[in-house]
C-alpha cells in the first residue's frame, strides 16, 4: 500500500515535471528514516537526518534545518528554514520564522513574520513583516502590518495595528493598540498606547498610559497618563502628569500637572504642579504653577497666575493675582493683581488683598448649624462667649481718652452698640434704692470709722487687691458707689437735723441769756 501511495503522488507530479517546472505537489522522504508521523510537502522540505515527530512542513525548504524538533507546522517557502530543535511552532507565510532555531511555542502568520526569531518563545506575530527582527524576545504579540518589525530582544509586548511598535527594539511590557501607535518606541517599557497615533513619538519613555487618538503623540518622557483624543498632544519633556479628556493638557510641556475634563489646561505650557478638574477648567492658564481649579470653566483671566485655589462653576474668571482662594459658583475678584484674597459663597467677590469675604446674605455659625445672625457663636461652656482676643487684654492700654459708645450683649446674647456708661440690670434688687427705705440699717459713723481702721476701705466696697484679682462688675460697682452716696446723703440729712436741733437749742439758750442779761442790768440800775 505505501508503494502504491508513493506511485500515486509521483503520478500527480508528472504533468508538472513534464512542463519543465521545479514544483512538487508532494515529495518522498529525504532520508530512509526521517522521524515518524511527519508530513513534508515541497522541494527541500524537512531535513534528511531529522528525528523529530508530528511535524508538518509545506513549502520550498520549509523546516529545512529541522533535526529533533516536534509538533511544528510550517507553511510557506523558507518558513522555519533554520529551525533545529524548536518545537510546537506554527509558521504560516513566506519566510516566516526563517531564522528560528531553538524557539518554541511561537505562532508567526504573514509574509516574513518573525523572520529573524532565533530562540524567542511564546510569541504570536500576525501580519506581513510583523516581528520581523525579533531574535530572542519572548511572550510578544504583534498583530498588523510591520507591527513590532524592529523588535529584537523586547519581551512581553502587545502591538496591535498597522505598524504599531514598528521601531521597538528592546522595550518590554508595552501594549500598543491602534494604527501607528507607539511606532517610534525603541527601548521604552511598560507603556500603554491605545488609539491611532497614540504615543507616536515616544522612544525611551516608560510607565506611560496614552489612550485616545493622538494621545501623547509627542511624548518622550516617563510616568504620564494621557486619556482622551489628543490629550497631552504637545508634551515632550513633562513627567508625572495626568491628562484626561479631549485635548486636555494639549500644549503642556512641564511636570506634575493633573488635568481632568474637556480641554482642561488646554493653554498650559510651562506651568507645573497644577490640578484642574472640570470642562475647560484652567483653560487660559499658560505659565502659572501650583494652582488648583475645580469646576467647569473654573480658571483665571491671566495666563501666569500662581498658587490659587478655585472651586465651583466659573470661579476666578477675572482673577489675575496669586495665592487667592475662591469657593462657590461665580466667586471672583473684582480688582486686578490681588494676593491672599479669599471669597467664599456663591457670587462672593473680593476687592482687596489679604481679605476674606463671605457671600451676600450669608450667616456664619460656629458651634451651631442654624445661625440667624451674620455671626453666631455657640460656646460649649455656659456664660462663656467663646471669643478670645489674644492681642487685646485687660492689660492693654486704652486707645482713646474718652469713649462715646461701647459693645455689650442683650438678654438674648445679641451683641449691641450702646452709649458709654449705659448699663442694664436684671432686677431692681441689684440697684441701691433699698438704702433709702425706712427699714435700712444705716451704720453709725463710729462703726464706719472702726471698719475703716480695720480694713482700709469702705464697707461693701472691694479692696484694691480684690479688684486686681477678680475685676469688677461695672453695673454692680455703680450700684455700690451709689449706695455709699445715698448713705452719705442720709448722714448729711441726719447732720442737718442735728444742726437744726442744735440751732433751736442755741436760740433758746441765747434768748434765756439775753433775758438774764436784762435782769442783771435792771438790778444794777436799782442800786
From TrEMBL:
Residues 499-526 form a coiled coil. The keyword Coiled coil applies. Keywords: Coiled coil, Signal. Residues 1-18 form the signal peptide. It comes from the Bacteria. This is TMF family protein.
Amino acid at each position: 500500500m505505501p508503494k502504491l501511495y508513493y506511485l500515486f503522488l509521483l503520478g500527480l507530479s508528472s504533468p508538472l515535471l513534464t512542463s519543465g517546472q521545479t514544483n512538487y505537489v508532494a515529495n518522498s522522504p529525504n532520508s530512509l528514516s526521517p522521524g515518524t508521523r511527519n508530513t513534508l510537502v515541497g522541494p527541500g522540505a524537512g531535513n534528511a537526518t531529522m528525528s523529530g515527530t508530528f511535524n508538518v512542513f509545506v513549502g520550498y525548504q520549509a523546516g529545512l534545518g529541522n533535526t529533533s524538533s516536534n509538533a511544528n507546522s510550517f507553511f510557506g517557502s523558507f518558513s522555519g528554514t533554520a529551525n533545529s530543535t524548536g518545537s510546537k511552532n506554527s509558521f504560516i507565510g513566506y519566510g516566516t520564522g526563517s531564522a528560528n532555531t531553538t524557539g518554541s511555542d511561537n505562532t508567526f502568520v504573514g509574509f516574513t513574520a518573525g523572520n529573524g526569531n532565533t530562540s524567542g518563545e511564546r510569541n504570536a506575530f500576525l501580519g506581513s513583516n510583523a516581528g520581523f527582527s525579533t531574535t530572542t524576545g519572548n511572550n510578544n504579540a504583534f498583530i498588523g502590518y510591520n507591527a513590532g518589525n524592529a523588535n529584537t530582544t523586547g519581551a512581553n509586548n502587545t502591538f496591535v495595528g498597522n505598524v504599531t511598535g514598528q521601531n521597538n527594539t528592546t522595550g518590554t511590557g508595552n501594549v500598543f493598540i491602534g494604527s501607528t501607535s507607539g511606532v517610534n518606541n525603541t527601548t521604552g517599557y511598560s507603556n500603554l498606547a491605545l488609539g491611532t497615533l497614540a504615543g507616536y513619538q515616544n522612544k525611551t519613555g516608560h510607565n506611560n498610559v496614552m489612550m485616545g487618538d493622538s494621545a501623547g503623540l509627542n511624548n518622550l518622557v516617563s510616568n504620564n497618563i494621557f486619556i482622551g483624543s489628543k490629550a497631552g498632544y504637545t508634551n515632550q519633556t513633562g513627567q508625572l502628569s495626568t491628562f484626561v479628556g479631549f485635548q486636555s493638557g494639549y500644549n503642556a510641556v512641564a511636570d506634575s500637572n493633573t488635568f481632568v475634563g474637556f480641554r482642561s489646561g488646554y493653554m498650559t505650557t510651562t506651568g507645573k504642579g497644577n490640578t484642574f478638574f472640570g470642562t475647560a477648567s484652567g483653560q487660559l492658564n499658560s505659565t502659572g504653577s501650583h494652582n488648583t481649579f475645580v469646576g467647569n470653566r473654573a480658571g483665571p483671566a491671566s495666563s501666569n497666575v500662581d498658587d490659587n485655589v478655585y472651586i465651583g462653576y466659573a470661579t476666578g474668571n477675572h482673577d489675575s493675582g496669586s495665592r487667592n482662594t475662591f469657593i462657590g459658583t461665580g466667586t471672583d475678584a473684582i480688582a486686578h493683581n490681588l494676593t491672599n484674597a479669599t471669597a467664599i459663597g456663591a457670587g462672593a467677590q473680593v476687592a482687596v488683598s489679604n481679605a476674606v469675604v463671605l457671600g451676600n446674605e450669608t450667616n456664619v455659625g460656629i458651634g451651631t448649624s442654624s445661625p440667624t445672625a451674620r455671626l453666631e457663636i455657640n460656646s460649649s461652656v455656659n456664660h462663656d462667649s467663646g471669643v478670645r482676643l489674644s492681642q487685646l487684654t485687660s492689660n492693654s492700654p486704652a486707645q482713646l481718652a474718652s469713649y462715646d459708645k461701647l459693645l455689650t450683649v442683650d438678654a438674648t446674647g445679641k451683641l449691641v452698640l450702646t452709649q458709654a456708661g449705659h448699663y442694664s440690670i436684671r432686677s431692681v434688687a441689684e440697684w441701691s434704692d433699698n438704702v433709702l427705705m425706712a427699714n435700712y440699717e444705716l451704720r453709725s459713723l463710729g462703726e464706719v470709722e472702726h471698719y475703716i481702721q480695720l480694713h482700709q476701705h469702705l464697707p461693701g466696697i472691694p479692696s484694691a487687691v480684690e479688684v486686681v484679682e477678680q475685676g469688677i462688675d461695672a453695673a454692680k460697682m455703680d450700684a455700690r458707689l451709689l449706695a455709699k452716696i445715698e448713705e452719705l446723703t442720709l448722714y448729711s440729712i441726719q447732720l442737718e437735723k442735728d444742726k437744726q436741733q442744735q440751732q433751736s437749742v442755741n436760740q433758746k439758750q441765747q434768748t434765756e441769756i439775753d433775758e438774764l442779761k436784762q435782769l442783771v442790768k435792771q438790778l444794777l440800775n436799782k442800786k
